[in-house]
Amino acid sequence: MLVPEFVPAIFASWYIPVIYAGILVAFIGLIGIAIEKRDIHILILTDIVGLAMLIVVAAVGTDLAEALILPGLVVELAEIMAISEILISREMRKSDKSTSLFPLPLVLDMEIMKTAPNFLALVLLAFGAFLTGFTGGAVAGAGILLYIISRKSRGLPIAVIEGIGGISGIAWCIWIIGFVLLFIAPELWLLSLFMAACGLVLKVSSKLGLIGTMMREEFKRE
Amino acid sequence: MDLASLGGELLGTIPLGDIVLYLTPFHLFMFVVVLIFTFLIAISRTETQIEGSFGTLKDHKVSVGLEEFKARRFLAIICGLATAGAMITGDLFNFTLFIALIGIVNVGIVSAVKQVDVLDAAYQYGIIAMICSLPLFGGAAIVLASTGTLSLFEIASMASATPMMIFGAILLMIGVAGETGIAPFFATKAEMFRTPGSPFILIIHLSSLFVIIRAIEILLILVKVI
User: Do B131 and A33 touch (CB under 8 A)?
Assistant: First the structure.
């Protein structure tokens, strides 16, 4: 038996039911694909089969299998993005006109955009800076996005930050240096941990902010 | 089946922690051939098709723009490198990842073409590739669960194959067939070839030819029937 003794027997006995569950989920997804006629719906339903793949990989439940889930997820995302790109380019060829990247109505009639968006954005930024790392970056970036969208929906001008991509690049370098330092000089682990965490918070938040900038450019074009 | 009878005399191993690469003349030959083809594709230019039309004497020139040419050449080189990686790797999961990369890049190579039929075919191929990532990665995961390792070198030294390993190997083969678009799924791929830009389109075909040979070697290592 390959399973070590310290693993409870109930975990090992779950493997076969989980494999069955994964295959069942995939089968349900395939039935959906067979019934559905619209291309975009087929694409979305295909993702269910991808999730079933993650279930089958996760069923193994070892460290190695955990390391395999992430590439599997990335491959799945990359494939869905590539196919959606194909769909978009095909529809553009059919209709013979290019469409906006983010066709969202400009007027967002929501209370959250009028009452205290600046305060909320500030809280999100502060909380993101406190969290650091990937999660913190996402929270802080959501704050930047909220700020930009709220300013835009009230029709106010936005302070344009040029070169926000540059910040992202530098933050990426800080992250990599911190990561390499962790291997070269393990005694500096605290410094390298903070370098990596702060680099990542800057990187992710500036990336989300970049989405905001791009959206604003799209709005300006209309 | 042992490694020596599959790929010739074992030249040596490169232990990289858990991942042990093993080199045989077979792998080295395939690796170098794919790299040579990739180099030839990297330095070549695209073809221009002349399409005749019915009813008139006019003909219609289909050429590839510079921007599209650059994107397509880049993706073709990535596809060649992924194929070369799939030839030399000694780790089952890296093999599946290289194949998934080939599948994505194949869709990418034709993503910018102007013909709607070709885009339709690429969409169908992409859907099949996505669905087949379930047997591909699932098969590798089942092999991992039943053997406790992903290293082909270690799997080759095992005495016999359990039924679960054979099941995993069959799933893996289904996955490879879907991702590279061979036998049951070839129709969409043939349709994708109808676009101009020949040397870059050909890597789609070439990669699947090489991958099949390697996949069969891996299948023989896993199944051990002979």
Answer: yes
Q: How far apart are CA A123 and CA A130, in angstroms?
A: 10
Query: What residue spans define the domains of chain A?
Result: 9-95, 111-221
Residues of B with CB under 8 A from a CB of A: 18, 93, 97, 100-101, 103-104, 107-108, 111-112, 114, 116, 119-120, 122-123, 126-127, 129-131, 133-134, 136-138, 140-142, 144-148, 150
pLDDT string in tens for chain A (222-residue length): 567 777 777 877 888 888 899 889 988 988 988 887 787 888 888 888 888 888 888 888 777 777 788 888 888 888 888 888 788 777 777 776 554 444 455 556 677 777 777 788 888 888 877 777 777 777 887 887 777 777 766 666 665 555 666 677 777 788 888 888 887 777 888 888 888 888 877 777 776 665 555 555 555 554
If you search the block for the tokens 């989405």, which residue do you land on?
A211
In chain A, the residue whose alpha carbon lies closest to the alpha carbon of B151 is A64
Rounded alpha-carbon distances, angstroms, from residue B81 to A117, B88, B151, B212, B216:
49, 11, 21, 16, 20
- Maximum CA pair distance of chain B? 69
Can you say how many angstroms the Cα of residue B95 is from the centroid of all Cα atoms in its chain? 9
- For residues B14 and B3, the answer to whether their CB atoms sit within 8 Å is no
Tracing tokens 């379930």 back to the chain, one arrives at: B134
d(CA B111, CA B113): 6
For B218, how many CA atoms within 13 A lie in the half-sphere containing its CB?
32
Cα–Cα distance, B13 to B90 (Å, whole number): 9
A71 to chain B: closest CA residue: B97
CATH code reported for the domain at A9-95: 1.10.287
* A106-119 CB burial, b ≥16 within 10 A, e <16: eeeeeeebeeebee
